[in-house]
Amino acid sequence: MTSMKTANNDNGAAQPPKGHWGRRIGHHLKTKIAAGLLVVIPAGVTIFILRFLFNLADGVLAPYIRKTAVFIFGEGGRYIPGLGMIAGILVIYVSGLIASNVFGKRLIHTWDRILSRIPLVKSIYSSSKQLISVFSTSGRDSFRRAVYVEFPKEGSFSIAFVTNSVPTPSGKNYYTVFIPTSPNPTSGYVLILEESKVYPTEFSVEEAMKIIMSGGIVVPEDFLAQKLQ
Question: 161, 165, 175, 176: which is closest to 206 by C-alpha?
């Protein structure tokens, strides 16, 4: 009788197929490395951005602080990392104090008028002021409420902000709405729509801004498609 080859060992247990342990080790390494990347990459990106912002904020005034330290203490004067950032915060705070009184407001008004007359500077300066005004309290107040509008085509809805109402002699009421782009809400489209074409939402202006700036990743619980029907 011909003997049959078996995959049994001396104890009678079946031996794993050839390459079985190699596949298990490979699968283990693949899954663990993938899980590790999900932890390390966001943390690394966060650290990189924070370090970049710190160096940027600290580096603006750092050269002047270094020169001041050398001037006062001589060559032995050392610059401590972070002093530029602290000095920048103090400058912003003092600027806020100045802008909050009557004399400061007149000074800023004069400054705005001077910069608005310089050809290249006025474009950059005015654009920067508009950008800041969007995120300031007064800028957010100009967005009366968050709404849905059919854009860019019928059946496709976008988040928009009502900025004004436009009554007409015929009695129809129109709204001016601003549709921001994502993730940069400082640019977008301005539409004038009939009141019936503007649909209410269940979330606030702040929540709508979070949705837009996160590209739809951060959404409130009330962000439901049924609300559009």
Answer: 161
Whole-number average pLDDT of the chain: 76
Phi and psi, residue 43, nearest 5°: -65, -40
Enter the pTM of the model: 0.47
DSSP helix/strand/coil, 162: strand
CA angle 65, 67, 68 (to 5 degrees): 60
Handedness of CA 26, 24, 6, 12 (dihedral sign): positive
How many CB atoms are closer than 10 A to CB 76? 7
Greatest Cα pair distance, the chain, in angstroms, is: 112
Per residue in 160-189, pLDDT (tens digit) is 999 888 888 888 889 999 999 888 787 889
Handedness of CA 124, 122, 120, 91 (dihedral sign): negative
Report the candidate in 128, 105, 102, 106 with the shortest Cα–Cα distance to residue 116. Answer: 128
The H or E element spanning position 166 is strand 157-167
User: Which value, to the nearest 10 degrees, does the dihedral of the CA atoms of residues 16, 19, 22, 24 take?
Assistant: -50
